Here is the input.
Amino acid sequence: IMSDKPGNGPICGMQLQPVRKVNAAGIPGRGAVDLTDQQRQLVNIRTVAVKTSKVDRTVRAVGVVTYDQSKVADLNSRVAGWVEKLLVDKPGEHVEAGQPLMALYSPELYSAKQDYLLAWRNARDAKNARGEYGATRASGANSVLESARKRLELFGIADEQINALQTSGTAKPTMEIVAPFAGTVIQKEVVVGKMIQPTAMLYRIADLSRVWVDAEIYEYELPLVKVGQAAQVALTAYPDRRFKGKFNFIYPYLQS
Here is the structure.
């Protein structure tokens, strides 16, 4: 009920409330509304000045924990042979860098070690040779020694192992396969007595100190995700913990 003067409503008898005119640019076809402080509180309306600010958006996705592909190594032998002994015999074991994993018996490698020792002794003796013939002999012996050493290096023998071979002066018929870095054995494909070919994988080792989470997001969420953004990972095995990370890579293709 509207009236041009104060009073009570003729039907309900309630006191009429004054309406104040305000200068507000509203939506065309609609009138402006002015509320008292009490009315604002009752309807829970709050207003703030318009300003530019950052808005947080949360993107939830399902992911799978996997290895950091830059810290995974497959070990194999560069020479054929037989597994003589396993020093690490089950998956899940932690290994340190340079730790022996297995001993491989290889007649071909044993022959190469013998050739190196012979070349090393000849080069050592040639140093004492005198005259023009002695210099020629020393040069030839050093050339043969370098060739024999290169052959061992191509078989995967480290410099430390070659130096140990010189120190002992005795060639062992086995070669140790060592871990390239500290990590966890996640796959083992050898048993004692198995014949090994150079193409066969022996161990797979992964450094689990840092892992990846492959998360799947929807196409419409792509503008919200960028490399370097922070992320939190929740695991069923640890319901009370949140693991911090960041987006490291976004695949350049979509999966249907």
Summary: The mean pLDDT is 87.
